[in-house]
């Protein structure tokens, strides 16, 4: 591959894409610059013909440069691999609830019987809560490893491997081993959250232009949704072709096994190819500060970065506070609460839950395109606020309408509305955060984005469990979702306008908000430059400057 800036063709695993001229004045991102260096290419090479076939459905071309980056294709594959995992979690979760209720002797949704000291209907929220607490404590350490070592790719690869292993073990779910499967569900969820920390570290490297970020995040979400959709279709088709189950327990187990088997096959292939072939190694962002360890550095860095944001970036500060309350799909809030609500409160069968999931996923595809359109017509901030309001209204409507199993048919309609909102909200959230990250500080802030997005994910399952243990209607438990969405929306109102927010973090003149956020000049090694762009020394220096300013103000 040519190392010339204007001749760099970036393909998937082999870098064999057709060469396109880079626009004059274009400034390359870290991944784009790395693709021009032969030594930065993936160590595992596959035949070009095979690579073009495997990678084509996942490739997203940069709007600004017209290039296809290996990491962008890898991000697409990774997102598509996580799609079936979320679906399998829903089906396995339903089976775990049914099996726990059967062991406790429950025959109705109002059953008070307990297993392992809690109500059988509380097992998923409790597992999610414990997983979220552990992940919140470990995530800064993982972020420190990603930032201060060259093991970013290793962390992503190993966590993806363990996620797939846990899922493969759950194929054997049965009445006799449901508690072991519940433990595997918790371990797999923890590994998945850790994996997200590693894969998000690659996101800022993809481009320096807002239009590219909108295109990338929308494309990633569409591919994840399509993979979930195909998974849901296969599960439904297999369920229809298979003889009717003899009981609800039998149907739940068979559905969970089918879902886990399909997800295991798809995720193994996509995770394997993306992390072996496409994602490339990155050097440390910075060295571990003197006097600190790899463990303490992670917590210290989060504290300093949060303090820096709090004192200098008004809009970004309120966005981070909003992230505390905004639920992420697949984490404790959405998955455990909704699965429990459908399985227990509405007494839906495994097949009915599969159909609702299918309807929701079909609707999320236009939601993803809606995100792209609204971000372009308005701006990412207004799009995010509108998505939060819509999601809040739909969740509140769902909690109010679905008051008994007799009204469960309404769940199909609300599922469609949920799908549109989910497809709209989460790509917009990522675009907004990426565009508000201060120039040259992308690596630092992607870690804190993941941290703030998960730090309170244990709270909704805890509140849901408290309500459930006190025999409060699950409608109130489901109403936690619109409450948290409203809290997130209220925080975004304090951010001001999008133009003002961008102006705060731009080093360029405020009147020109379209300039890229980081420059990598031709002929410059992009990787060491990125590593020096915003390290611990920068944080320390900025903190000292702030302290000196405070002292001067006090003297005055």
UniProtKB/TrEMBL annotation:
CDD domains: MFS (cd06174). Residues 1-44, 512-556 are annotated as: Disordered. Keywords: Membrane, Transmembrane, Transmembrane helix, Transport. SUPFAM superfamilies: MFS general substrate transporter. It is a multi-pass membrane protein. It comes from the Eukaryota. Residues 31-43 have a biased composition (Low complexity). GO terms for cellular component: endomembrane system. InterPro entries: Atg22-like, ATG22/LtaA_families, MFS_trans_sf. The chain crosses the membrane at residues 123-142, 154-173, 180-202, 222-241, 262-279, 318-346, 353-371, 383-402, 409-426, 446-464, 476-498. Its main location: membrane. Pfam families: ATG22. It is found in: Endomembrane system. Belongs to the ATG22 family. This is Major facilitator superfamily (MFS) profile domain-containing protein. It comes from Grammatophora oceanica.
């Amino acid at each position: 591959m040519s190392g010339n800036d204007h001749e760099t063709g970036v393909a998937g695993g082999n870098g064999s894409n057709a060469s396109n001229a880079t626009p004059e004045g274009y400034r390359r991102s870290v991944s784009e610059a790395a693709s021009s260096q032969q030594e930065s290419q993936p160590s595992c090479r596959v035949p070009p013909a095979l690579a073009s076939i495997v990678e084509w459905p996942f490739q997203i071309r940069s709007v600004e440069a017209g290039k296809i980056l290996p990491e962008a294709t890898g991000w697409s594959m990774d997102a598509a691999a996580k799609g079936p995992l979320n679906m399998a979690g829903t089906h396995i979760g339903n089976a775990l609830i049914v099996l726990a209720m059967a062991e406790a002797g429950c025959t109705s949704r109002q059953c008070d019987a307990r297993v392992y000291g809690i109500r059988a209907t509380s097992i998923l929220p409790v597992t999610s809560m414990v997983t979220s607490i552990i992940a919140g404590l470990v995530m800064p350490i993982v972020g420190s490893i990603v930032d201060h070592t060259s093991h970013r790719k290793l962390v992503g690869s190993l966590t993806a491997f363990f996620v797939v292993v846990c899922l493969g073990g759950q194929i054997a779910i049965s009445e006799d081993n449901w508690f072991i499967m519940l433990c595997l569900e918790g371990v797999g969820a923890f590994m998945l959250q850790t994996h997200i920390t590693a894969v998000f570290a690659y996101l800022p490297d993809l481009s320096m232009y807002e239009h590219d970020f909108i295109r990338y995040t929308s494309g990633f979400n569409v591919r994840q949704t399509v993979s979930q959709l195909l998974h849901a279709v296969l599960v439904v088709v297999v369920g229809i072709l298979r003889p009717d189950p003899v009981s609800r327990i039998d149907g739940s187990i068979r559905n969970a096994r089918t879902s886990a088997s399909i997800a295991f096959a798809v995720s193994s292939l996509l995770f394997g190819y993306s992390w072996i072939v496409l994602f490339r190694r990155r050097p440390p962002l910075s060295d571990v500060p003197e006097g600190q360890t790899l463990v303490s550095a992670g917590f210290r860095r989060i504290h300093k970065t949060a303090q820096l944001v709090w004192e200098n970036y008004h809009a970004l500060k309120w966005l981070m506070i909003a992230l505390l309350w905004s639920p992420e799909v697949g984490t404790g809030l959405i998955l455990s609460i909704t699965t429990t609500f459908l399985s227990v409160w509405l007494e839906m069968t495994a097949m009915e839950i599969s159909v609702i999931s299918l309807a929701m996923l079909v609707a999320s595809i236009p939601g993803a395109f809606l995100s792209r359109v609204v971000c372009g017509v308005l701006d990412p901030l207004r799009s995010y606020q509108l998505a939060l309001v819509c999601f809040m209204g739909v969740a509140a409507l769902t909690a109010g309408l679905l008051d008994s199993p007799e009204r469960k048919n309404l769940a199909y309609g609300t599922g469609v509305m949920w799908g549109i909102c989910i497809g709209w909200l989460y790509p917009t959230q990522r675009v907004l955060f990426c565009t508000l990250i201060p120039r040259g500080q992308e690596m630092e802030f992607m870690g804190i984005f993941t941290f703030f997005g998960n730090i309170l994910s244990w709270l909704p399952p805890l509140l849901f469990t408290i309500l459930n243990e006190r025999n409060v209607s699950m409608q109130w438990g489901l109403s936690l979702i619109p409450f948290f969405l409203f809290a997130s929306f209220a925080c975004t109102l304090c951010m001001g306008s999008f133009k003002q927010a961008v102006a705060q973090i731009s080093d360029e003149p405020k009147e020109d908000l379209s300039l890229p956020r980081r420059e990598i000049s031709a002929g410059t090694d992009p990787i060491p430059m990125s590593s020096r762009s915003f390290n611990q020394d920068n944080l320390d220096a900025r903190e000292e400057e702030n302290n000196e300013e405070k002292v001067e103000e006090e003297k005055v």
